[in-house]
Specification:
With 385 residues, this protein is of the alpha/beta class. The protein is built from 13 helices and 9 strands. Bound molecules: ligand 9MR.
């Protein structure tokens, strides 16, 4: 959620009239800029770090984030930051079914196109998210949708971006694996209830028939270690491969939770990355953020250090396994989804507003200043071979 501050200044008559003239000119300028998101290179001078996109590019890698059209339009400092730091972006919601096909067969691309235009202007690659998901869909779409609905949807949305100069990849399916064996009716592949492997296979095949020039991903969370879920995710990838389906990569969301009591399963995650590489399905990081849950450290400074150390450890491991694309789920704590009461960790944070200041999962703070996590990411890129 955005946190906004308003500053009021008192001024004498002379100053006041000067201010009014400036405000008038500014308004005119805003009019000019209205059609495009006006990100420019004059990002806040306090950030003297080299842009992450530049450090990534030096190692043949991409760095970016989920972006929101609403904030790009309303907050110039945010738009400037994205343009400065990112070489790849995922629309936060603008390409989801509820945004692109709110009524059966009636497609709207206004907000997604605005994002694509912003990306083109700033030389940012766009990762398409997503064609098939149990959330982010209008009420008239059941889960899973019928094959006919999927056919129309995929044809409409992928068709619209077939010639896009910036959209290079699609999350064809998102979060199709259940969280545990109790939540699936398909013990072999662990799919969400009602989803059949054949439907997923056909979805990928339809996608390839519409536009096989893009990279196709299967995207999920909770697969960053050796878990029931990652095992079934990998089985599903294998199934798609064995059925002659075009699948280029695996999106590893990486909404990571650590605490002073536990870290991450480096050995297990390494084996997931290895199995994907063996299957020639490229792992990329698609939604990275790091939440520190209780027990918490006793200061924000220590928390920021923990977040930074976790970024470093996680990304070091990813890069050692050949990962070349890192997308975070937001760039600044100002907008992180994890501060929304619906999404924040329930037991510990939701009913405890005094702890919300500890939700600092992203590389830049609310004022868009780089945090220790940003330095850590910069260092990992610099040290990558
Ligand atoms: O962060 C996104 C939030 O603003 C949306 O309301 C929500 C529903 O569309 O989706 C969130 O993004 C999710 C992403 O699409 C898939 N992985 C989990 C993300 C966080 O919930």
């Amino acid at each position: 959620m955005p946190y906004r501050r308003k500053f009021l200044k008192r001024a004498g008559y002379t100053t006041l009239s000067a201010l009014l003239t400036m405000a008038f000119l500014q308004k005119d300028k805003e009019k000019e800029d209205r059609s495009i998101y006006a990100a420019t290179a004059n990002y806040a001078s306090a950030n003297t770090n080299p842009p992450l996109r530049k450090l990534a590019a030096a190692k043949g890698k991409l760095f970016g984030t989920a972006i929101s059209g609403e904030f790009l339009q309303k907050e110039k400092d945010y738009a400037n930051l994205i343009a400065r730091e990112c070489s790849i972006a995922t629309p936060n919601g603008e390409l989801k079914w509820n945004a692109t096909e709110p009524q059966p067969g009636k497609f709207t691309f206004e907000s997604a196109d605005a994002i694509a235009d912003f990306c083109q202007k700033h030389n940012i690659e766009l990762h398409g998210h997503t064609l098939f998901w149990h959330m982010g869909k209008p009420d008239w779409v059941p889960y899973p949708p019928t094959l006919k609905m999927l056919e129309r949807h995929v044809t409409g949305v992928m068709g619209h971006y077939r010639n896009s100069p910036v959209l290079k990849s699609w999350d064809i399916a998102n979060e199709i694996i259940a969280d545990s064996e109790n939540e699936t009716d398909n013990p072999t592949y662990g799919l969400r209830k009602g989803v059949k492997p054949e439907l997923v296979r056909d979805l990928f095949k339809i996608a390839a028939s519409v536009d096989n020039t893009k990279k196709f991903y299967l995207n999920d969370f909770g697969i960053e270690g050796a878990t029931w879920k990652s095992d079934h995710f990998l089985k599903m990838v294998e199934y798609l491969k064995n059925n002659g389906v075009k699948i280029d990569g695996a999106g590893i969301q990486s909404h990571l939770w650590f605490s002073t009591a536990y870290g991450f399963d480096a050995k297990g995650f390494n084996s997931v990355l290895k199995r994907l590489n063996d299957l020639e399905v490229k792992p990329i990081i698609t939604e990275l953020d790091i939440i520190i849950d209780t027990p918490l450290p006793d200061s924000i400074k220590k928390l920021d250090q923990m977040v930074a150390d976790s970024y470093k450890r996680y990304l070091d491991l990813c890069f050692a396994a050949g990962v070349d694309t890192v997308i975070s789920w937001g760039l600044t704590d100002r907008h992180t989804w994890i501060r929304h009461p619906d999404w924040m960790p329930r037991k510990t944070y939701r009913n405890n507003p005094s702890l919300w200041k500890f939700l600092r999962p992203l590389p830049f703070d609310e004022n868009l200043q780089p945090k220790l996590a940003c330095n850590a990411i910069a260092q990992v890129f610099q040290q990558a071979t």
